[in-house]
Amino acid sequence: MVMTLEFERPIIELRKKITELKEYTKTTDVDLSSEISKLESRLEKLERDIYENIKPWDRVQIARLPNRPTTLDYIPYLFEDFFEVHGDRTFADDEAIVGGIAKFKGLPITIIGHQRGKDTKENIRRNFGMPHPEGYRKALRLMKQADKFKRPIICFIDTKGAYPGKEAEERGQSEAIARNLFEMAGLRVPVICIVIGEGGSGGALALGVGNRIFMLENSTYSVITPEGAAAILWKDSSLAKQAAETMKITAPDLKKLGIIDEIIPEIKGGAHRDVKGQADEIEQILKSSLQQLLKLSEEELVEDRYHRFRTIGEFTTAQEYIGVK
């Protein structure tokens, strides 16, 4: 089922009206083609005005949709012969992170991604996409395997954050995330990271140290949720909409700040409208990125990644930082 967001309501109502008129013309002799044509033109303009001016809070809502495509939704459209690998060889298998080996256009690659559920039962099974330490250690095991066998790594980021529960802290949540950051920085193979939904805090960053970082148009990437930021800054989580505007967590803002490399356009209305069509957009960016990165030596790949993160936040004046010329 495709869910409707508040800002889309005028579009949905107009589409419904057009459908009703078309059905009416089929059952009567009344010619309403002129009225239908005018409404379709109006719909086209309305869609353009709304979808080209989506507010940050609207993008947050799209990124959180239960039916937004996940890592496992994209894999069949992008890769061949996917073989999922389980367990961290230390404690357990964390289903909030999936990973394995596959082929992309005949090239062996390693895939790692956050995985949340589509309904309550699956969300409980996957801990709502919030990994425990064993999830990050499973990811690191796959990264080291890819490094050994010279396979490029593709990471899909989609989590509210690492699980903050007592048992996760007891098993070394902070150490597991920090270890991933450290190890990913020195990987000698291409690493491409794509934020496909929510990119929340260190839980997202633990899969986010790449040579190239991309975001789907309606995804978010932030140190904390808008609700959490509002609760800290203004002692009122209901001001989340205002926080989303202030935090600069959307793809257009992060591209402007140099945090990400490129924005991957989404299907009109969001990736959930057409998973295959969205996968085609991701495929193009993967092809071009791999073509560039596979030309680099191992030393150049490490240096490229180091330079990428060292230059984040670089500016010469306050005016340049806030975008004033």
UniProtKB/TrEMBL annotation:
Q: So what EC number does this one have? A: 2.1.3.15
Q: Which InterPro entries match?
A: Acetyl_CoA_COase_a_su (IPR001095), ClpP/crotonase-like_dom_sf (IPR029045), COA_CT_C (IPR011763)
Compartments (UniProt record): Cytoplasm
Tell me the GO molecular function terms: acetyl-CoA carboxylase activity; ATP binding; carboxyl- or carbamoyltransferase activity
Q: Which SUPFAM superfamilies does the UniProt entry name for this protein?
A: ClpP/crotonase
One GO cellular component this record assigns the protein to is:
acetyl-CoA carboxylase complex
Q: Is the keyword Cytoplasm in the record? A: yes
The kind of enzyme this is, by top-level EC class, is transferase
PROSITE patterns in alphabetical order: COA_CT_CTER
CoA carboxyltransferase C-terminal domain: residues covered: 38-292
- Does the keyword Transferase belong to this entry? yes
**Which reactions is this enzyme annotated as catalysing?**
N(6)-carboxybiotinyl-L-lysyl-[protein] + acetyl-CoA = N(6)-biotinyl-L-lysyl-[protein] + malonyl-CoA
Keyword set, alphabetical order: ATP-binding, Cytoplasm, Fatty acid biosynthesis, Fatty acid metabolism, Lipid biosynthesis, Lipid metabolism, Nucleotide-binding, Transferase
Recorded family membership: Belongs to the AccA family.
The UniProt entry, under PANTHER family, shows: ACETYL-COENZYME A CARBOXYLASE CARBOXYL TRANSFERASE SUBUNIT ALPHA, ACETYL-COENZYME A CARBOXYLASE CARBOXYL TRANSFERASE SUBUNIT ALPHA, CHLOROPLASTIC
Q: Give the HAMAP family listed for this entry.
A: AcetylCoA_CT_alpha
Q: What is this protein called?
A: Acetyl-coenzyme A carboxylase carboxyl transferase subunit alpha
Q: Which gene encodes it?
A: accA
